[in-house]
Amino acid sequence: MTQEWIKKAEVLLEALPYMRKFQGQTVVIKYGGAAQQEPELKAAFAQDVTLLQYLGLRPVVVHGGGPQIGRLLKNLNIPTRFVEGLRVTDAATMDVVEMVLAGKINKEIVNLINAAGGRAVGLSGKDGRLLEAEKAHLYKPREDEPPEIIDIGLVGEVTRVNTDLIRTLLEKHFIPVIAPVGVGPEGETYNINADNVAGAVAEALKAVKLILLTDVAGVMDEDGNLIPSLNPNSLALLTEAGVVKGGMIPKTQCCLEAVVGGVGKAHIVDGRVLHAVLLEIFTDQGIGTEIVA
Question: Which of 20, 118, 179, 219 has CB 3.0 to 4.6 Å from 124, enough for a Cys bridge?
């Protein structure tokens, strides 16, 4: 029994330098994947975010919701089409996206954090023009011809993050929970990739950390082993060699842009691990891949 208590004390002592280092610092967490769907992981995430606040950090949560959107679109018999991993978003689809993201999912996360003892407030990018956006286009290369421009509908890219509202909430010790829905110059509503929103928010706030919760352990090498740390040069080499591929390319690029833009470190972490956020921030080894400038 004594040994168990000693181990618990050692865990706290390992965390102590990081608690001191990150006191008063902003951490932006992209919440998605299994961590957003499995009840045990959802409860653990809410506890993690609440504990960060109690320890004096300033967490900001940006969430996704692709599977939930897909299920409701199917129930409503609205066809879904993806191009290069992006959901083609017409007006009917956008209504569902906004309803699910800014309504159901956002308020569920807020409720979970509040039930864990935190003080969360739900926002969409429309609130206070928090996320200003423009229409995104896909460019498909063609041999000996200009690239083909593919219209993917109401999919947007962040052009500006208005941080006043976020900073006001953080100063009043609230946890902002942001749905990745943006607003265009003429008031148009845009569906925006949650990873990209999290990166843009972290960069605008000059966060000490950007954490992307995923359903993989992190960035893996050619032998399937976790790569604990990457810098721009090593990331470029691995991408060129085809080691970093598929859906991991936009995630690593998002992290790279954030750290180049002033974020302290970016982390790609397995959200299927209980208390993944705490393990990444407060332990010497961490559990995912960090990307540093």
Answer: 179
